[in-house]
TrEMBL record:
PANTHER family: GLUCOSIDE XYLOSYLTRANSFERASE 1, IP22168P. It comes from Esox lucius (Northern pike). Its EC number is 2.4.2.42. One of its GO terms (cellular component) is membrane. The keyword Cell division does not apply. Glycosyltransferase which elongates the O-linked glucose attached to EGF-like repeats in the extracellular domain of Notch proteins by catalyzing the addition of xylose. It comes from the Eukaryota. It catalyses: 3-O-(beta-D-glucosyl)-L-seryl-[EGF-like domain protein] + UDP-alpha-D-xylose = 3-O-[alpha-D-xylosyl-(1->3)-beta-D-glucosyl]-L-seryl-[EGF-like domain protein] + UDP + H(+). This is Glucoside xylosyltransferase 1.
Amino acid sequence: MRRYIRALILCMVFAVFSALYVYSKLFYADLSVGGGGGRNVLQRAAAAPNPRDSGHGSRRGPDKKGPADQHWYNRYIMRKAEGHAGVVGGAVPEQMHLAVVTCGQRLEETLTMLKSAVMFSIKPLRLHIFADDQLHASFIRVLESWPGSLRPRFSYSVYPITFPRRNAGEWKKLFKLCASQRLFLPLILKELDSLVYVDSDILFLQPVDALWSLLAHFNDTQLAAMAPEHEEPRIAWYNRFARHPYYGRTGVNSGVMLMNVTRIRATYFRNDMTSVGLRWEELLMPLLQKYKLNITWGDQDLLNIIFHHNPECLLEIPCHWNYRPDHCIYGSNCVSAEEEGVFVLHGNRGVYHDLKQPAFRAVYDAIRQYSFGEDPVGSLLMPLEEELLKTTSTYCSKSHVLFTKRLSHSLANVNRDPNKGPPHGG
């Protein structure tokens, strides 16, 4: 009898020490994911999934979070700029979150977008950069080379491109390389409440703060904001050619997307595949499987399908938040830009890199070539205005004053001391 008791005691002791060992491994794995580290420390999460985040199996009940392939979104690489952003009087000001996805030959384009975001922003920015592994070192080198005076304005994390293991190749190649990564940001950036997602070919001509402030305009059901794909139905694409449901009259463009990711993760979305609502992570793959032969614009089409069935979830914002060649190529058709100027310029169709729309390229080149610390009026605005006067061969060029209307006001933020608050009237 005593031998059985001793054996039982030994088993219990072994079980306790095993549990403590597993707990310590999970604890330090969590630290390696979330820790700040120094400027030159590369941090990777442990390969094992975190049970707090991913559940305990491939099948999930209605109250558990995470896709069937549970642990794919727990792996990421994080680098932080040294120091804390914008600490004034011992208090940490609100931080805005900006996410971008870039693959292939878009390094310079993405850095120019980030430059426009940082140089005009008022509140500190947290940059979330999802990129091919071979681009990570270049992003870090350039961002670390920016002047120390900019350091209070921004911090950053660089992440690998990651998709659910099942169908990862299909997701990565959907429409443009890696573009569909944006669909999974709510599942990857689980610590965030809200973020702004933009394509790499975006340029901010107005502080990101203005876009971020639209979160306060969300009602109780809205969880995202996007601008229409077109303003004029007669030249719109979705209402003429789409073979799938889409939002509103002309669909929405996903190049600029403001997201309350907390609400996205918590919502059960209506759909045309089942009579019950589905969580975001449950919805994406069935949608792709159902419509992949009928969609042209990849993940943007999937977003249009989702918000077609859940229109109350979307705040439709004016076209000056996502101004593209479509708004001027056949004549000006963005009324809000005519009234207030262009807030966010979207150089889709590759117009930053060819001569088809010289006005778009002129703005891109002006911001790309500007060096931090120089007089923004003399080194950016005035040369840009001179260049725009030469580009009168297209309808977009004839609307060039719309491109500088907001930019001329935003330049007051470029060399602002972040510790002194926003400029007067800013």
